[in-house]
Amino acid sequence: MHQDDAAPPLLRDVPAPPHDGPAGTPAPGRGTGPGADARTAAFGWIDAAREQRRRAGLVRTLRPRPVDSPLLDLASNDYLGLARHPEVTRGAAQAAHRWGAGATGSRLVSGSTELHARLEAELAEFCGFEAALVLSSGYAANLAAVTALGGPGGLIVSDAGNHASLIDGCRLARARTVVVPHAEPDAVGKSLDGHAGPALAVTDSVFSVDGDAAPLRSLADACRAHGAALLVDDAHGLGVLGDGGRGAVHAAGLAGAPDVVATATLSKSLGSQGGVVLGPARVIEHLVNTARTFIFDTGLAPAAAGGARTALRLLRREPERATQVRAVAAELHQRLSAAGLTVVRPDAAVVSVRAPSPELAVRWAADCRDAGLVVGCFRPPSVPDGISRLRLTARADLSPRQAREAVRTVVRTAPAVC
């Protein structure tokens, strides 16, 4: 998924590609007329889909960045500025030299190393959980947790604003899934009423579209009133919220609870790559035995594990980084709001600026880039409310001058109708 459209789609079936109608009637755009090359016709329907995206202004493109870009980056998720920190890159390089470039296999076969075990123990201790399990990505961690904890006969209650990885986990879990309005604990409780089997409520801690935080304490209360478990994706909370960046779940006083599981990514605040599931030891043991994205996937590369472990140690030593990234986000919000733009108050590091339309959002982001600033651009169908916006991500290493310049660029390039 391209960085300018990383927000979650709605939890619903996505439109299927064009398909044959009654009696094998070719769908439009297949190119199966006389003389058509059968090999070309196999994916002919893609041309029609591409044209549909073009007309809707929803074309996504990959844009490789150079090693040393002159652009100011407020689109990445490097919240603490650790992805290029010398200690972190050195930790990654040393791990690769010692353990090799890859994990060499599934962790249940040959891919689990002492390095993985140390990282898991340190993550669990830092975040306040009994145990942890590291996977190859945050996406894989969410798929593992949701599918292993939800299944036939179970009930999953999912927030309408959840990330795509949680949504896909719900789709794959084979449990009955109920989608509830965004950040409404009462709706969660009502959905759990009358269900007698295993039940799981699933939510982001901080939602990636608007940067607002979930009411975790109230959600936990709603779950406990019905004997349900709570699963929290703390991807945008780890390193930003809580005591010393221990995350939103820790800040809510829920870390280590026997009915709470958290997931997180190692690719945002920790500047590396990978994902982790944190929870009771019996839950982690269950995932080791049942989670397909753990069992059948190659283990996290040693370099990523080494980099994440070094970043975690650095965060312990410099907990003020978590405070600083929140201060930068607050400053961006204050300055953009003062300039007359519609900005959602950030609960963590994500600052969301509303745009008038998908087309103008794309143009706005492009104008920012031309002026030297990279920002995220979220458009339908990737946003659950259908509202396009620019997304700026604060960084702890952003200087006051850079923050002021970023705001000036966003304001100067804003569409006239904003």
Provide key terms for this protein:
about 40% helix; globular; 15 helices; about 425 residues
What does it look like?
The protein is α/β, with parallel strands linked by helices and 418 residues long. It contains 15 helices and twelve strands. The strands form two sheets. A seven-stranded mixed sheet has the order 2-8-7-6-5-3-4, sandwiched between helices. Helix 7 packs parallel to helix 8. The chain is globular. The relative contact order is 0.16. The N terminus is likely disordered.
Given the structure, what is the number of helices?
Answer: 15
Straight-line N-to-C gap: 27 Å
Mean pLDDT: 91
Structural class of the helix and strand makeup?
A: alpha/beta
How many strands in all? 12
Architecture blueprint of SSEs:
Layout: H1 38-41, H2 45-56, E1 72-74, H3 86-99, H4 114-127, E2 131-135, H5 138-149, E3 155-159, H6 164-173, E4 176-180, H7 185-192, E5 199-204, H8 216-224, E6 229-233, H9 248-251, E7 260-265, E8 275-279, H10 281-290, H11 292-295, H12 302-317, H13 320-338, E9 343-344, E10 350-354, H14 358-370, E11 373-378, E12 389-393, H15 400-412
Parallel strand pairs: 1-11, 3-4, 3-5, 5-6, 6-7
Antiparallel strand pairs: 2-8, 7-8, 9-10, 10-12, 11-12
